[in-house]
Amino acid sequence: TDTPVTVIGLGLMGQALAGAFLKAGHPTTVWNRTAAKADQLVDQGAQLAPSVGDALKAGPLTIICLTDYQAVRELLGAADAELDGTTLINLTSGDSAQARETAQWAEQRGAHYLDGAIMAVPPAIGTAEAMILHSGPKPYFEAHKSTLDALGTVTHLGADHGLASLYDVAGLAMMWSVLNAWLQGTALLKTAGVDAATYAPFARQIAEGVATWLPGYAEQIDRGSFPAEVSALETDARAMAHLIEESEAVGVNAELPKLFKAMADRAIAAGHGGEQYPVLIEEFGKPGTD
Ligand code: NDP
């Protein structure tokens, strides 16, 4: 807990990150373009660096969390020489290509670079619920894991710097898919006077049940073989048609089920109707038709 750490960028997230390091007892140096955002942290014991360069030099580890990658490159570009020997962890949200490019850019300037993604809101930072993903050379992560532990549940995904961003959006895809499916069902049940709170426990049970299928289905995808052990895709497609018809009959939006039925129909047309649902990975693994 006596390892010094620097946090650059004190927006809502950066303030939470710096606050968690302070709370865990780390000597914490901060810098923000708008210096006033450091006031509260300084009251809690943070050191406000007079420049980005000074912030980078304050210790062996710097966390940066700005609006986007462009802001990161602009800011650190001006402090060019100062990256040498620093471990730089970029927790700014962005895509995998930006992460890989920024890694190359930072490494050329002598930094030990890790990319990261925060799967949490600021109030959760510092608790086990805050999932913080890292990717890049593992030794850089291991050297600072005990410091990073102050932020939440921190994990290393692999050496490819793009992995944290990819896991980030993959997690969002999961989140929105579950939420949208739940809203579809809630809208259907509302037409019969069932309120959302009544349906929610049932929906949760379904979502948890489906989640238990993932490891077995993942094995099929990794093997590239999709025998219909419990159900064939054409059986699913018939149930999808039923969901669309019911939605339309009661005046509920049917766009979402139509979208996934169109994907299933394409897979069936390609000859996969007798295989199991995860064969749809072939549709997901290529550009769509929009
Ligand atoms: P804020 O808008 O609160 O803060 C943005 C920060 O970026 C500020 O410190 C701002 O400085 C700084 N900044 C922007 N442009 C520049 C620039 N050109 N030069 C220097 N500094 C710059 O955003 P958040 O803190 O909420 O988010 C930061 C990152 O964390 C984003 O990538 C976001 O996607 C990610 N994140 C946020 C979550 C959240 O719930 N808030 C959840 C998960 C990830 P200044 O104060 O001077 O404007």
Report on the architecture of this protein.
The structure is a single chain. The chain has two domains: 5-158, NAD(P)-binding Rossmann-like Domain (Rossmann fold, 3-Layer(aba) Sandwich), CATH 3.40.50; 166-284, N-(1-d-carboxylethyl)-l-norvaline Dehydrogenase, domain 2 (Orthogonal Bundle). It is built from twelve helices and eight strands. The protein is elongated, with a radius of gyration of 24 Å. With 290 residues, the chain is of the alpha/beta class. It has an eight-stranded mixed beta sheet, with helices on both faces. The protein has helices at 12-23, 39-43, 52-57, 69-78, 96-108, 138-148, 163-190, 196-211, 214-223, 233-249, 255-272, 281-284; strands spanning 5-8, 28-31, 47-48, 61-64, 87-90, 112-119, 131-135, 153-156. Helix 2 (39-43) links the parallel strand 2 (28-31) and strand 3 (47-48). The termini are far apart. The site of NADPH dihydro-nicotinamide-adenine-dinucleotide phosphate (NDP) has 21 residues, from helix 1 and helix 4. The site of NADPH dihydro-nicotinamide-adenine-dinucleotide phosphate has 21 residues, from helix 1 and helix 4.
